Amino acid sequence: MTDLRHAVVVITGASSGIGRAATLAFARRGARVALAARRREALEDLARECRAQGGKAIPVPTDVTDPDAVEHLARTAHEAFGGLDVWINNAGTGVFGPFQDAPLDLHRRTIEVNLLGGVYGAYAALPYFLRQGHGTLITTISLGGWAPTPFAAAYTASKFGLRGFTASLRQELRRHRHIHVCSVFPTIVDTPGLEHGANVSGRAIDTGPLVYAPEDVAETFVYLVRHPHDEVAVGWPARLAQAAYALAPWPTEHLMGIAIHRALDRARPAPITHGAIRAPVPERPRTSGGWRARKGLPSARTLSTVGAVMGAAGLMLLASTRAAARAR
């Protein structure tokens, strides 16, 4: 789909972070968007913002762990807009800290939201795609779907499972040339998601300097609708982790374990929180988590681009210096 005007797009986890950025990105291009999350008021505010930017939007309060609610979301979008072109499984959560220190229901809920939420989304969208002969299913997975993340065991399990599910589904649908199953693997993204997840470690989370903007992921979604690809990374650290774990799984696990243990040893104390896993938090919806602003950093994509340009300039300068030396 090169022209997104009037395209019908369903986005779960739409009220904040990546989902909010994606909603506005599609609305600016004239798409018709069905917004799904648990908070009705947040969705209604976002729908008004979409309309102000030239798109059409309807709020559909949805808990993605309820398959009937997800089916209702698909049916509502189809009835409201007369079709269903794109479904984005974006809702997600996580538990950070020692596995045994978190209540078991938080681990279960993490797997229900991340993995089963994606399964229910695909199950709801595919009948429409198959009947009309086209459609794009996009699923937000994570760097954690390519390499295991210590102190996030349930999150890693859900993301590994989600990658396997989408890969299997992609091959199952390979004879349907105009139905695409795309998976997106972002690196660390500046969203409220780290605050909305549970943290039972007793230590503050630090994202580090390479934090990507939610808009970077949103524009990847737009690109995939226009140019479908099987698996796409957002940020070179995600690709690096994929390659490292594929080529040397044990050393990669070992190094990641050392790095996160050391980061926790240095982190400042923080209160234990269960975030928004059990119920939404009553805060104003945000796209950014404010991590880059607090660190005074631009998006990691900008930093990486600047680094690449400086590296290329350095190589060119070195080559010209050697050439001049040989000429003398």
TrEMBL record:
Which keywords fit this entry according to its UniProt record? Oxidoreductase
Q: Which Pfam families match?
A: adh_short
Q: Which NCBIfam families match?
A: PRK06139.1, PRK07109.1
Q: Which GO terms describe its cellular component?
A: membrane
**Top-rank lineage group of the source organism:** Bacteria
Q: Report what the protein is called.
A: Short-chain dehydrogenase/reductase SDR
Family assignment from sequence similarity: Belongs to the short-chain dehydrogenases/reductases (SDR) family.
